Every structure is written in structure tokens, then in C-alpha cells.
Predict the structure.
Amino acid sequence: MTTSKLRSAPTLALMINPSVQSRTKRVSLPHLEVRQRTPRNLRRPTPLLFVHGAYVGAWCWDEHFLPWFADRGYRASALSLRGHGGSSGRERLNWLSLRDYVADLEEVVADLPRAPVLIGHSMGALVIQKYLERHSAPAVVLLAPVPPSGLMAMNWWVGLTRTELVHDLWLVQAGASQCASFQRLRDALFSRALPDAEAKRFLGQMQGESKRALWDMNGWDLPVLPRHLPPSLIMGAGNDALVPRFALVETARAFDCEPEWIDGMGHVMMLEPAWEQVAARLDAWLLAQGL
């Protein structure tokens, strides 16, 4: 793992002990799928709430992160934003805005026993930034985040560096992912270390994203961050084809912290073979914050 100063850290191989964690629980909210793991021994009182990025749902956190953090004594939850995963609203997905997603986040936060640490990936990181316009949090962690300035500069960067990928992403958005190049999509989202079988399984669960939300992220409704922000950890992937380092640096500057990244990792950090390095760094940082 490296920071903006390329500081390395050892590889970690921590095993999950299933005897001390619960299975995934589906929390019953009127419109939203919330996957939650509550440990038998709740050693860490501040809950964690994970917010997914575009084209996926809460399932991406349930693969590794929710059981891993529950094993370490956290109540770990992940929501599927409306129109995603098992949440309602798929039929009106294209009309959903970033503000709708923020309202979903507000609803889940209110349902938790105390204010959670907010952890967002990619688009989910921008949803958290919009949430912080009117709310605070004990801490935030943003992984491969869309920066406060939105997608515009990143879209130009992808268009210049990976021209054919733009067409494949358009096919995914149109619901025709089976027509897109598997190799280009897997190389855009994952490192070469992820087996093809796993990449196919994950890509098979992807869906379209709201056109309205994409417009919001391109400038229609970007976050206006408050002056005072909670303690923040900003992490990126060294081989990210979608969120370049200049975007990670922008986000870290907005949150007045140093960016960190893990070399050799692709964009979808929570599903990468090295996902445990991300989880372990996050856990160590939370401990340092007293959370």
C-alpha cells in the first residue's frame, strides 16, 4: 500500500473466524435493501455504513467487507440505493437523482442505533459528499472517489486514454453488457490478479445506472462541501482506469488530508484479490481515530 509519497506496507492475510460473527441479515425498511452483519461480541460501538458505487448494489460489500468487519466487532451495514440491488425503484431508475440517493442514506442512518462511519466507493463517495452538505458523521472513508468537481474531467481522461472503453460502458448503461467487451471491462474495473471466472461473476451482477444521477455527477448537482468536515481517509487504486490520481488528490485536498493508494489494484477495490489490504488499512485508521 502506498500514500501519495509512495509509502509501502506489508501484505496482510487475516482470516475470518465464522464462530464470532453473524450471517447477513436483511434489514426491513420500506423501500431499501440493507444488508447487515452484527457480531455476537459488539466490541466497536460505532457502526459502519457502506455505500456502493454506480452499476452495483449492496452485494459488492457483502462479498468480503461486511463479514470481515463484523468479525472485528463492528455492526457493518450496506444499503442498496433505490433502483439498485434489492431496493425498489428499478422501473424509474433513469429519473433518480443524487439527492434521491442522499435521502436513502439519510433513512438508513436514522435507522441505526448511533451515527455511523460512512464508507463510500466511487459514486457512493460522491453521495456521501452530498450528504455532508447538511449532516456530519464520526468519520468518512472514500474509496476510489468521484471528486467534488464530478465526472467531467475524468470522462475526458477515460476518453483520451481508453477510447474503446467508452463504448463498452455505454453498452452497460444501456442494459446490453453482454454485447460489451469482457476483456476491456474487466481490465477497466479489476486488476489482472482477479481470475476471469470471478470477474465474470461480478460483471454478471452489474446493472444500469440512473441517467439523471450521471448528469448530476457531470455538473448538474455537485456537492458544496461545508467548511468543517469529519476526519477522513481517502484511498485509491494504483491501477484505476476510471479514477485517475489527479482526481484522488483533488478529493483529499477538499478533505484536508493526504491521499493513499494501493499499487497494482483496480477500481473495484472491495472485490479485488488484495481487498484485505484495503480493509486492514481502514480498520487501523478507525482504531487511530478511537472508533
The beta strands are 2-3, 25-28, 33-37, 48-51, 76-80, 117-121, 140-143, 232-237, 260-262. The domain at 2-151+210-288 is CATH 3.40.50.1820 (Rossmann fold).
